[in-house]
Amino acid sequence: MEKRQLLATAVLALAAAGAQGQETTWRVEFLDVLGRSTHWSPEPDPPPPFTAVTLSGLVKGEDRNRDGWIDRSELSELRFGHDGVSGNYATCGTWGDSGNNCTLSRFVFAPEGPLGPSFEMTGQWNQDLGGRMESIVRTETGAEYSYAFYRSAYGSYFWTEDTTLRITQVSAVPEPAAGMMLAAGLAALMGARRRRPG
Question: Which of 25, 33, 118, 192 could staple 113 via S-S, CB 3.0–4.6 A?
Fold first, then answer.
């Protein structure tokens, strides 16, 4: 009986360890954000009208403390917008690319919060090439998303009372190392149980 209890305890511990190493990816979409973009020209045409668009992003992380929120320390990837310049905001301040600089001053994410899904971020991405500021991208969800590319393109988008948030879980794959550890542990326990006389 004691052996069975020991085996059950070990199996549960290994299963818990396997369940913890799980990163999840979500797609974040803000629908009906009002805005417009235009290309630079020395003799600009009249600006296009404002239209409703969808701004989207990607969040990848693991809720390690099981509080229902992904905070900045639990992020592995954070991307937002359609500017083609901004990279992974989760790495802001951790890499030394002299041409790119990013800040992430606010981040809140709960895919299933008590009052519904929540995603908030305030960040900026600057690209400086050859001593000249090539682009500035600013994001403050709930307020504004904008970009300005030197002599190229400009865009400004604003949240309105009609803007809604949609969060879709894309994947949740256990880490391979955790799965292999669980399988190896179970095999070892079963082998030890067979070798010992009952």
Answer: 118
Tokens of 114: 């008590």
Q: Read off the amino acid at residue 12.
A: L
CB contact at 8 A, 84 and 62: no
Q: Using H for helix, E for strand and C for coil, what is the string for the chain?
A: CHHHHHHHHHHHHHHHHHHHCEEEEEEEEEEEEEEEEEECCCCCCCCCCCEEEEEEEEEEECCCCCCCCCCHHHEEEEEECCCCCCCCHHHCCCCCCCCEEEEEEEEEEECCCECECEEEEEEEEEEEECCEEEEEEEEECCCEEEEEECCCEEEEEECCCCCEEEEEEEEEEECHHHHHHHHHHHHHHHHHHHHCCC
d(CA 38, CA 158): 15
* pLDDT tens figures, 133-170: 789 999 999 999 999 988 888 999 999 999 999 999 99
CA proximity to 111, closest of 82, 74, 146 = 74
Question: Residue for token digits 């067979």?
Answer: 194
Strongest mean pLDDT among 15-19, 29-33, 124-128, 175-179: 29-33
pLDDT of residue 196: 56
The neighbouring-strand residues paired with 38 are 154
Mean pLDDT of 83-111: 87
Residue in 106, 129, 128, 132 with CA at minimum distance from that of residue 119: 106
